[in-house]
Structure formats: C-alpha cells, structure tokens
Amino acid sequence: MAFLYEEYDNLSKHGVFDDVKIPSYITENLRHVLRGYQKEGLKRYLYFSKNRGNQQKEQMLFNMATGAGKTLMMAAFILEKYKQGERNFIFMVNRDNIITKTRDNLLNASSLKYLFADKIEIDGEAVAVREVQDFSDSSPYAINLHFTTIQKLHQDLHNPRENRLSFEQFEDLSVVILADEAHHLNSGLKKKEKDENATWTDTITKIQNCSLKSSWYYVNISDNLNLRISAIRG
Predict the structure, then answer these.
(1) Closest C-alpha to 180, from 100, 109, 234
(2) pLDDT value at position 67?
(3) What is the rounded average pLDDT of the residues 156-173?
C-alpha cells in the first residue's frame, strides 16, 4: 500500500494541485509571501481537507528541512483551521527555548519575526491572537493559543491543578494540536514514564479520545525540502 505522500506526488505530477487555490483569508492575513513549496504543501492539505469525507479527526505529518519556513506554514494552517471553525490550538514542542521564539512569531506584532498580518480579518470580522493557560476562557472570536512542552503537558494533565489543562476540558472541546519537531517529542520523557506506558503518544491519544474533534498537526524536520503529507489517520 502506497504512502499518502506518494499518491499526492503522483497527483502533483499530473497537475491536480494546479487548480487548488490558496484562499485570500490565508494570504492576506500573513505578513510574508509563501514560497512555492509552502504553497504546494498547503494545496495538498486543502485538497485532502476538501476530499476527506466525514472524518472528525486528522493526523498528518509535514516533512520539512531546517530553514524551510515551518512556522509560517503553521501560521497559515492556523488561519485555515480558524476558517473551518476551530478556535483552540495547542503548540507543543520538546524544548522551552522554542516556545520563547514561537511566541514572538505568533503573538508579538511588534517583532520583526511576527508572521501574521498587523490586523487579521476573516469573513469581515477582526480576529485576535491570544495566549491562554487553559481553554476555560476561550474566545469564540480569537485564535486561542496554549504553548507547552510535551513534558509539561503530560505533567499538567496527569496532575490536575487550577488554571491548567485537564483531560476533562477536552470532553466538550475541539482542539488543534501543532507539534513542532515531532520526531523529538518522545526523547525527553523519563524511562520510568515510558515503562508505565505514560508516553507522550498515550497522552495525545487520550486527548483525542476525550475530544469531540481533535486535529493533530505535525511538522517534522528532515533534509528533504519537499513538503509531504506523509501520514493521515482518521
């Protein structure tokens, strides 16, 4: 059985994605112009999204090289998911220093690295981008972003505290999980946790099982500059 990216590579050779248009609510709400291969990656997702049927859950992997603009791809993907009705986003990494950098990219409009337009507007409505500690006060008119490491997310969910994420929150919540450098995410957990079957994969699976509709977006870094949707599971 062929991988999905192999099927999509074949579709690309036959020009199928040439007719897929990246909507203005993405291009006009980004500060930077998308590169050709970024457009190709987005078109592949848009094509998949249009043809995926009634699946409630998405799991995918974008394989990108270092310096290929993966965070800009994330920003574009966030805009698309907002248009689809999503409001709650978890940005998950394996190191704290990546969170600091990404906050500037997605929250600090005065930063030169900021990726969104100065004013985000979708369907004639202004859209705010805000950081939240949990989703109890999510705004229906904003992109609500929670930044965490997989280690902290694992600890917060398995040791419930006030003003922290809990498994119970996901029971009536739709959430998009964006995992940066996904191939590193299981490297930081202690052996004891792995031995107890409390790995990050189990944590994410439990979130998905609790949630009504959980979208899981992976950005993985490799030496290959081609963007590939290499795994999708309903």
Answers:
(1) 100
(2) 77
(3) 83
Mean pLDDT, rounded, for 23-52 = 91
Helix axes 70-83, 36-51, angle to 10 degrees: 30
- The rounded distance, in Å, linking the Cα atoms of 80 and 74 is 10
- Angle among Cα 98, 82, 158 to the nearest 5 degrees reads 50
Diameter over CA atoms, the chain: 53
**Pairwise CA distance, residues 24 & 190, whole Å:** 45
For the cut 70, the answer to whether the pLDDT of residue 220 exceeds it is: no
For the chain, what is the HEC assignment?
A: CCCHHHHHHHHHHCCHHHHCCCCHHHHCCECCCCCHHHHHHHHHHHHHHHHCCCCCCEEEEEEECCCCCHHHHHHHHHHHHHHCCCCEEEEEECCHHHHHHHHHHHCCCCCCCCCECCCEEECCEEEEEEECCCCCCCCCCEEEEEEEEHHHHHHHHHCCCCCCCCHHHHHHCEEEEEEECHHHCCCCCCHHHHHCCCCHHHHHHHHHHHCCEEEEEEEEECCCCCCCECCCCC
Q: For residue 142, what are the β-bridge partners? A: 128
**Model pTM?**
0.83
Confidence of residue 81 (pLDDT cuts 50, 70, 90): very high
What average pLDDT is seen over the chain? Answer: 79
